[in-house]
Design a protein that fits this description.
The complex is a heterodimer of chains A (590) and B (51).
Chain A: H1 3-23, H2 30-35, H3 42-53, H4 56-69, H5 80-98, H6 103-110, H7 113-146, H8 150-197, H9 205-214, H10 233-250, H11 252-259, H12 264-298, H13 307-314, H14 318-351, H15 354-385, H16 397-405, H17 410-446, H18 452-476, H19 483-507, H20 513-536, H21 548-567
Helix pairs in contact in A: 1-8, 1-17, 3-8, 3-11, 3-12, 3-17, 4-12, 4-17, 5-10, 5-12, 6-7, 7-8, 7-17, 7-18, 7-19, 8-12, 8-17, 8-18, 10-11, 10-19, 10-21, 11-17, 13-15, 14-15, 17-18, 19-20, 19-21, 20-21
Chain B: H1 25-49
Chain lengths: 590, 51
């Protein structure tokens, strides 16, 4: 990488870290550390919420997904604005009324301590695993690109995050996320503009859309309902709404972002801002992937996008290396033929010749089918050279374009985008993990009645602890089929049950803690059973992971009603807040 | 945006505070949902137009 790119990359990252540390240098008590003195404005909250959700995986994996499968993944986010409205209308006012630090505190007020503790543990399990993935996923790709050992990249991301999160707590997380989102959004717009500018002369934006559409890449909305098809408008509007209700309403890494708002109004506006911006942003990221796809119809792509895998084949012996060279030569010939057909399409489109255009598309599709077969052959060679290798290269598509085709300076900026995204998600996660551990377990059930200074030190210590746990998981994680899906699958295993607990709390006032607690345990067992059932026998258990969230949610609600009908209501909910405060009182816990 | 100093005592949590635009929260929510529906319509039109 050019020294200017290194300067841009390191300068951007160090500036953001220094800004976060300097801006939050006066953090001196637990409320300040965990809730940022509740002083954030709506745009900081909104950007912080977006930055927490948009991990580096979003910017590495999503364009690759569009490159392979088109824009349909956008439908996954269709439930998000609906969830934002429901949360702003019904959930945030409850959290504000009780002045809670965590979402789980509310559950003790509504149900009992064991339901609060169980839900907090579900969060710690689920988010603890994901935090490792949000470091590992980009680290493995950045390591391959930068030539760094994986552990060095892991430590680079992890240590920078730990420094400013320990120094400034939740306010540092939000302040740095504001800068990070500015870098991220600027970087993606610049990438889209560069991609368009690099298309051959005479190929315009209309041709780009025409070519991508004719090759089936622009189908954003699929109206055909199917449980087995992961992404259609129905799973997006129904199942994803449940997933996002759970993620934004019951996952402390998000709840903490809007609980640090200056007022209820600021928090509501922050969530609604996210509801308006998030879907178009995802469409932009996917569209960048489509532009990369079109770009590689004019520029010859590698036969496999993970160059490190090709080097392994080269070094595995003369036989495999020779077979790879033959395959690459065939791939070059195929590209030349396909390029002719693509040029024919552009000319036919300009002249309005429908028949010629249809012929060109048929030729391109035939060549693309052959190209897919060649890419499969390349993967077979990689697995022959190293049976342990990960042969999937979708996550390397965008980064290959960045490093190979962007001008000097912008390579550093786009790598800063990916590092920023990794840091912003990880920071929220370890900040929330430390908060839930201190507030819901340590201060509530383990060590009570100590000074605020003690809990502040504990919060900082646990931030380091969870940062190190995330680094440990990042060091030993194996790569899943697709990184975005891996994170979402881990979430789906717990989100349904957690959402069911919160739905019972908010909307079923008759339900009591005992019934909800046992229903939650049984629902979680059902969700895990259905997930592994689908993995082993998808014909018998057809539900894909997105549907596990509504299943878990409804299972909690139905089982809780049944259990309560059988066993009776049990003890009533406590009248006071968990630490003895009356529900309407304000002020920090101690 | 910070109205904490002028909040009435009856609404210390700001539950009744109105949004800075649109006049009421239900209108704000309707705006977000209608905009979302329009965008889905645009995406659907793109899907059909370039299919």
């Amino acid at each position: 990488m050019h020294p200017i790119d290194w300067t841009v990359l390191l300068g951007t990252l160090l500036f953001i870290v220094a800004y976060g540390v300097w801006k939050t240098r006066k953090v001196s008590n637990t409320e300040s550390f965990l809730l940022g003195d509740r002083e954030l404005k709506w745009w900081t909250i909104g950007l912080s919420i977006m930055a927490t959700q948009a991990s580096a995986i979003t910017f590495l994996s999503t364009p690759g997904k569009a490159f392979e499968d088109g824009m349909g993944f956008a439908q996954f986010y269709f439930g998000l604005p609906i969830a934002m409205v429901i949360l702003a209308a019904f959930v945030i006012p409850q959290f504000y009324r009780l002045k809670v630090y965590t979402a789980y505190e509310y559950l003790e007020t509504r149900f009992d301590l064991k339901t609060r503790t169980l839900t907090a543990i579900f969060f710690l399990l689920q988010r603890g695993l994901s935090a490792g993935l949000t470091i590992f996923a980009p680290a493995i790709i950045l390591s391959a690109i930068l030539g760094w050992p994986l552990q060095v990249t892991n430590i680079a991301i992890g240590s920078l995050v730990i420094i400013y999160t320990v120094a400034g707590g939740t306010n540092a997380v939000s302040q740095t996320q504001k800068q990070q989102m500015i870098v991220i959004l600027s970087g993606m717009f610049i990438a889209a503009a560069i991609l368009l500018s690099k298309l051959p002369e005479g190929v315009g934006f209309g041709d780009t859309l025409g070519l991508a559409g004719a090759l089936g890449k622009l189908e954003v909305v699929n109206t055909e309902f199917s449980f087995e098809n992961r992404y259609n408008i129905w799973s997006g509007l129904l199942a994803s709404t449940f997933l996002f209700l759970s993620y934004f309403g019951a996952d402390q890494s998000q709840v903490q972002r809007y609980l640090s708002g200056r007022s209820l109004t600021e928090s509501r506006l922050g969530l609604l801002f996210n509801g308006i911006i998030k879907v178009p942003m995802q469409v932009l990221v996917l569209f960048v992937g489509i532009l990369v796809f079109v770009f590689f119809q004019f520029e010859r792509p590698p036969v496999h996008f993970n160059e490190a895998n090709l080097i392994v084949v080269e070094e595995a012996g003369p036989d495999l290396a020779e077979r790879l060279h033959v395959l690459e030569a065939e791939h070059a010939e195929l590209f030349a033929r396909k390029r002719q057909a693509v040029d024919q399409f552009v000319q036919a489109r300009a002249s309005g010749e429908t028949t010629a255009r249809t012929e060109a598309i048929e030729r391109i599709n035939a060549e693309l089918a052959q190209e897919r077969a060649m890419r499969q052959e390349a993967k077979a060679l990689i697995l022959q050279a190293n049976p342990e290798a990960n042969d999937l290269d979708g996550d390397y598509v965008f980064i290959t374009f960045v490093t190979e085709y962007l001008p000097i300076g912008l390579v550093g900026l786009l790598l800063a985008v990916i590092f920023s995204a990794a840091m912003s998600s990880t920071a929220s996660e370890i900040n929330a993990l430390a908060t839930a551990t201190v507030v819901d377990l340590y201060r509530r059930s383990l060590i009570r009645g100590r000074s605020d200074r003690h809990y502040l030190q504990m919060s900082k210590g646990l931030t380091i602890f969870w940062g190190l746990i995330a680094l440990l998981f990042a060091s030993v994680a194996n790569l899943f089929d697709n990184l975005v899906e891996a994170v979402n699958i881990v979430g789906s295993l717990f989100y349904g049950t957690v959402l069911g607990i919160f739905a019972a709390a908010f909307f079923f006032k008759r339900l009591r803690g005992r019934a909800v607690f046992w229903a939650a345990l049984m629902a979680e067992a059902l969700v895990v059973f259905l997930y592994f059932g689908h993995e082993r026998a998808p014909e018998t258990y057809p539900l894909t992971y997105l549907w596990l969230v509504p299943v878990g949610c409804f299972a909690v609600l139905i089982l809780a009603h049944l259990i309560q009908a059988l066993l009776g209501p049990g003890a009533p909910a406590p009248e006071a807040a968990p630490d003895g405060r009356k529900a309407s009182q304000t002020g920090a816990q101690g | 945006m910070d109205r904490s100093g002028s909040q009435p005592a009856a609404d210390p949590d700001g539950v009744d505070e109105q949004p800075p635009i649109m006049g009421s929260w239900p209108r704000m929510y309707a705006f977000v949902l209608i905009l979302h529906a329009v965008l889905i319509g645009v995406y659907y039109a793109i899907s059909r137009l370039y299919a």
